[in-house]
Amino acid sequence: MDYLKRILSKNLQDMRTSRSLKQVEVAGLLEISPSAYNRWEKGGDWIGSESLPKLERLALFYGVRPSRFFYDPDMDNLEAKSTWSSTISPEIAKKLEELALLIKNS
Questions:
Q1: Tens digits of per-residue pLDDT, 59-97?
Q2: What is the CATH number of domain 1-65?
């Protein structure tokens, strides 16, 4: 789960900064506190069923599919993939590869 949190965190920050937005602005859009949004970008424990509609709203705002928040371009790189897959179980690595392929093809 730490891997997914890192990817989500990086993608949220990249999307926000590429549009020159402040965390407080994005938090306002999502109707959450700036400190709660900060935890999202820091990879804190926040994902729950109540957070998913907020991610969908954010995806609409950015004009991307919600799955884009979990896309890791390094997974397309075989050297990088061997790095992340060595730190997790083979079963989870296989599931992540399947997820990456689905996201890439969506």
A1: 999 999 988 888 887 776 655 555 555 566 777 777 777
A2: 1.10.260.40
Whole-model pTM over 0.90: no
3-state secondary structure the chain: CHHHHHHHHHHHHHHHHHCCCCHHHHHHHHCCCHHHHHHHHHCCCCCCCCCHHHHHHHHHHHCCCHHHHHCCHHHHCHHHHHHHHCCCCHHHHHHHHHHHHHHHHC
CB 99, CB 70: distance < 8 Å: yes
Residue 41 and residue 13 in contact, taking contact as beta carbons nearer than 8 Å: yes
